[in-house]
Specification:
By secondary structure, the chain is α+β, with helices and mostly antiparallel strands. The chain has helices at 15-26, 46-51, 70-80, 91-108, 114-123, 128-153, 166-180, 189-199, 202-207; strands at 6-10, 32-35, 59-62, 65-68. The chain contains nine helices and four strands. Strand 3 and strand 4 form a beta hairpin.
């Protein structure tokens, strides 16, 4: 896969796009970055809506094939480029990796998505203090459960085992968001240890929002 063959439409601070960048880097794949500036509303433009009717990021484009939803994209990359794998070989461990990824991508992250926050600002008189309180509450509630799950698994350096999986691709961006919004990470010892193990790897460093062409 070359940079000319694949385009990833995304925004540098988007957690969902960040997940896919990590997966691409872990697999040693390259791509062309097409910025979609969420704060400027570029995701709502007609051209992008034709590509992704939901008006969300990321969108993976490979020739005439277009795929949306970060978990679906990562699973596609896994099947198309199975080595190195982002899913453990053991069937139960694979299920656990998917469980953690889904808990983050489907339960924690959506409540703090930009479009949800915008709705709250417009219709519920949310100011910045209320918005940050909302974000902190739902991340803390999600992380408290996730910390217990990960501590119970505790079977390796990363979320599930000694190699990064789809779960780690999701965890690191969510922790980035938590820190960005001032969430106290002290209670989450296992989560912090996993993220520290991830952050020494080139794939995670290169996928970081600050390293993206549209970072500002």
């Amino acid at each position: 896969m070359t940079s000319s063959a694949v385009t990833l439409h995304g925004y540098f601070r988007s957690s969902a796009a960040y997940r896919v960048r990590i997966a691409l880097k872990l697999k040693g794949l390259s791509w062309y970055h097409a910025g979609v500036h969420l704060l400027r509303g570029e995701q709502r433009g007609a051209a992008y809506r034709n590509l992704n009717p939901q008006g969300l990021v990321p969108t993976l484009q490979e020739a005439d094939f277009v795929l949306t939803q970060s978990l679906a994209i990562i699973e596609y990359l896994e099947e198309r480029h199975p080595d190195p794998s982002l899913l453990p070989r053991d069937i139960r461990a694979r299920a656990q990796a998917r469980q953690i990824a889904a808990a983050i991508a489907c339960d924690i992250h959506p409540l703090n998505n930009l479009r949800v926050l915008k709705y709250l600002e417009l219709h519920s008189n949310f100011d910045e203090i209320a918005k940050h309180g909302w974000i902190a509450h739902w991340i803390a509630e999600g992380f408290a459960a996730l910390e217990r799950e990960l501590t119970g698994m505790a079977c390796g350096t990363f979320c599930v085992g000694d190699q990064p999986t789809i779960a780690d691709c999701c965890l690191v961006p969510q922790v980035f968001n938590a820190i960005r919004f001032g969430v106290d990470m002290a209670p989450y010892q296992r989560i912090r240890a996993i993220v520290q193990a991830c952050e020494v790897l080139d794939a995670f460093q290169l996928a970081h929002p600050s390293r993206q062409p549209d970072a500002n």
